[in-house]
Amino acid sequence: MALLIQGSFQLDNGIELNQLYVRTNAMLSIDGDVVGAYPEYWIDKNAYDQRKDAISLRNNWNFNFAYNRDTDGADILVFANQKAKETFEAQGFTATIIDL
Q1: Which of 24, 32, 40, 55 has the highest CB neighbour number within 10 Å of its CB?
Q2: Rounded-to-integer distance, Cα 22 and Cα 4, Å
């Protein structure tokens, strides 16, 4: 599962990208009530598949989400990707969940 994010991204070295391929790691808090989503960014799926280094993208977006297994489902990776998608969209980007 991955996200394809479209928009304008400025990297630290000044390069601007219009699209990112994003893989999200997920972690459940010890109390089981928060899921942390940890997105990692690549130029495209090919760069990810070739195990290229992830891109550093500075932001201050919150990727910790209140979680209730009974209402949000048992699969925290699906939950984390959906919430990350919503976070990117709230910042004005177009986000699509891919590679299901």
Answers
A1: 24
A2: 6
For the chain, what is the domain count? 1
Pairing of strands 2-10, 16-28: antiparallel
Q: Specify which residues 96 forms β-bridges with.
A: 4
Quote the pLDDT of residue 65.
98
Say which residues have a Cβ less than 8 Å from residue 97's Cβ, sequence separation at least 6. 1, 2, 3, 81, 82, 85
Q: Domain span at residue 8?
A: 2-98
Q: Which helix (H) or strand (E) holds 61?
A: none
Q: How many CA atoms lie within 13 A of 9 on its CB side?
A: 22
For 5, 30, 56, 65, the CA distances from 44, given in Å and listed in that order, are 10, 33, 14, 26
Residue 84 Cα distances to 8, 18, 66, 73, angstroms: 17, 18, 13, 16
Q: State which residues of the chain have pLDDT below 50.
A: none
